[in-house]
C-alpha cells in the first residue's frame, strides 16, 4: 500500500495553494509553442481563429496549474472567465477608450477583433481541460490534491 506522501505531485508543498508540477509546465509550454507556430504559419478561417482560441485556454490552464494547486473545475472556470472578460473588452474597444492601442503587447494580449464564436472556443477549451484532467486522475491519481 502506497503512503500518502508518494501520491503527492512532484514538488507539492503540503496543503498550500502552491505546488510545482513539471509535466503541467511542459504541457503548457508545448501548447504555447504550437500556438506560436499556428500564429506564424497558418493563415486560414478555422485553425488560427477558432482552434487557436481553444488552445489559448488550454495553454493558460496548464501554465497556471503547474504552480497553483486548484481543482480543475475552478481553474478552468477562472481561465475561461478571464478570456470572456478580455473578449468583452474587445467588443467595447477598451484599449482605444483607454488610449492604450499604440502598445503592441497589449494589442496581442487583448486581441483586435471581437467575435461571438470566441466564447464557444473558450468554453470548449475549458471543457477540454476538465476532461483531460479527469481522464488523467482516473489513470494517475492524484493529478491535483486540492479539496473541493
Put the structure in a nutshell.
The protein is mainly alpha-helical. Helices cover 66% and strands 0% of the residues.
Mind sketching the topology for me?
Blueprint: H1 4-7, H2 22-41, H3 47-65, H4 72-91, H5 94-97, H6 104-110, H7 116-139
Helix pairs in contact: 2-3, 3-4, 3-7, 4-7
General description of the model:
There is one protein chain. The protein is an all-alpha fold. Helices cover 66% and strands 0% of the residues. It contains seven helices and no strands. It has helices at 4-7, 22-41, 47-65, 72-91, 94-97, 104-110, 116-139. Helix 2 packs antiparallel against helix 3, helix 3 packs across helix 7 (116-139) and helix 4 (72-91) runs antiparallel to helix 7. It is globular. The relative contact order is 0.15. The mean pLDDT is 87.
Properties at a glance:
148 residues; mainly alpha; 7 helices
Helix content: 55-70%
Oligomer class: single chain
Task: Report, as a whole number of angstroms, the end-to-end distance.
Answer: 25 Å
Main sheet properties: none
Question: Strand share of the residues?
Answer: under 5%
Q: What is the CA-based Rg, rounded?
A: 17 Å
If you average the pLDDT, what whole number results?
87
Order of helices and strands: HHHHHHH
Which descriptor suits the 3D outline? globular
Give the helix/strand class: mainly alpha
Number of strands: 0
Unreliable sequence segments: none
**Alpha plus pi helix count:** 7
Amino acid at each position: 500500500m502506497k503512503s500518502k506522501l508518494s501520491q503527492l505531485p512532484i514538488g507539492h508543498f503540503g496543503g498550500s495553494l502552491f505546488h510545482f508540477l513539471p509535466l503541467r509546465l511542459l504541457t503548457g509550454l508545448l501548447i504555447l509553442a504550437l500556438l506560436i507556430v499556428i500564429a506564424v504559419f497558418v493563415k486560414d478561417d478555422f485553425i488560427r481563429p477558432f482552434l487557436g482560441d481553444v488552445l489559448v485556454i488550454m495553454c493558460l490552464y496548464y501554465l497556471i496549474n503547474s504552480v497553483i494547486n486548484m481543482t480543475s473545475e475552478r481553474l478552468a472556470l477562472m481561465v475561461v472567465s478571464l478570456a470572456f472578460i478580455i473578449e468583452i473588452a474587445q467588443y467595447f474597444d477598451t484599449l482605444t477608450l483607454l488610449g492604450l492601442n499604440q502598445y503592441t503587447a497589449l494589442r496581442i494580449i487583448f486581441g483586435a477583433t471581437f467575435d461571438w464564436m470566441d466564447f464557444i472556443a473558450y468554453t470548449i477549451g475549458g471543457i477540454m481541460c476538465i476532461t483531460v484532467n479527469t481522464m488523467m486522475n482516473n489513470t494517475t491519481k492524484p493529478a491535483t490534491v486540492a479539496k473541493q
